[in-house]
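re: ur question from yesterday

yeah so i grabbed the chain u mentioned. its 460 aa long if i counted rite. heres the sequnce exactly as i have it in my notes:
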Amino acid sequence: MAISVFDLFSIGIGPSSSHTVGPMRAARMFVTRLKKDGVLAQTASVRAELFGSLGATGHGHGTPKAVLLGLEGHSPRTVNVETADDEVERIRKSGRLRLLGAEIGDGHEIAFDEPNQLILHRRRSLPYHANGMTLFAYDEAGTPLLEKTYYSVGGGFVVDEDAVGEDRIKLDDTVLKYPFRSGDEMLRLANETGLSISSLMLENEKAWRTEEEIREGLLEIWRVMQSCVSRGMSREGILPGGLRVKRRAAATARQLRTEGDPMLHRSEWATIYAMAVNEENAAGGRVVTAPTNGAAGVLPAVLHYYMNFVPGADEDGVVRFLLAAGAIGMLFKENASISGAEVGCQGEVGSACSMAAGALAEVLGGTPEQVENAAEIGMEHNLGLTCDPVGGLVQIPCIERNGMAAVKAVTAAKMAMRGDGSHKVSLDKVIKTMKETGADMKVKYKETARGGLAVNVIEC
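ran it thru and got these structure tokens back, copy pasting raw so excuse formatting
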């Protein structure tokens, strides 16, 4: 099984990778399957049922909107974030859905009654994963044409029911030059080859792309991250969703610019970068899933910290940063989870903090052991972090939490760089602990909005 850095870092739309990006991809997969099976033209009606966390917090995470856009053939990477709400409003006002319309002109138009045909089950779950959804298609006589169940397993990854009983990541039998599935294996390969963590990952990425394609792809991801930070630091007002959360990144950035040398406020800038991204995410803007949308601000913030405050930072460092972060993220994806609905926010913000810490240590010149140590510190001090979004929205505590994790990642990297890489708790042990902690965590603390801050803060 092989995972690419481009699986972990994908360009998408807010506010949630598991509740927005995944369901949009699943809905698009469903209508694409109708076309492939030759029954799209016969389809007279469709129905979507959302279960578990998708049903419990779907409205706050924009899941119905994502499903409608996906059924019309939109992709999270290419959907126009400026007109997406207008597209959804057209569907709701007209009661008409253009199946695969984004791909084949006007698509195949059918009647669609959202209250009766897009159903969120707040208390029912499917057995395989907390983020499950089933889609149905029928002909004019009501005869079933297709029924498929999909699971959004975190970070925008989607598997269908055929994957039940198998690994939660779509199997890829690509042969890698330096395959590793644990931190120990990663360090062993680094020591045997003399390669850095980012160089190991680069050699493995060459199984899919040329080095030039890898570099350009990662720099495109960096450009999207930069654009997201720039937008977030320039826009003000109230975030959508009903909580009336005020955007703060732009105003805070203005204040800091008047307070002299930015080097004196590096930690605050890292916080603002992260909050800017997650305010954009909360508004349904274009973000990079890194490794999830709920944690999308951490890596861009630390990467901006590197570019703006580390002498000698350049685009080669950006590429190395993202490769090293991808190597660490892969370990979390393979051996635990990056889904808040499965293991709580420790799997989202915790994983992102670990990835950013290790990546920063890499570009600061750390040894493989120091990189692994930084990643371990970043995760160890996020263990037990719950996912309890107020109102089911990716706003409170998510926006501030990304800012806190960005600073924590920088601190973890610096702590590791002060040592020689030796430490008592390995990255593998902390990943195993995170997985076990997630299994022990009550369901109400795993993206259901039925525990923690979600019930102790009045929505107003």
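noticed a couple things. Residues 165-170 have pLDDT under 50 and may be disordered. also The longest strand covers residues 144-154.
anyway ttyl
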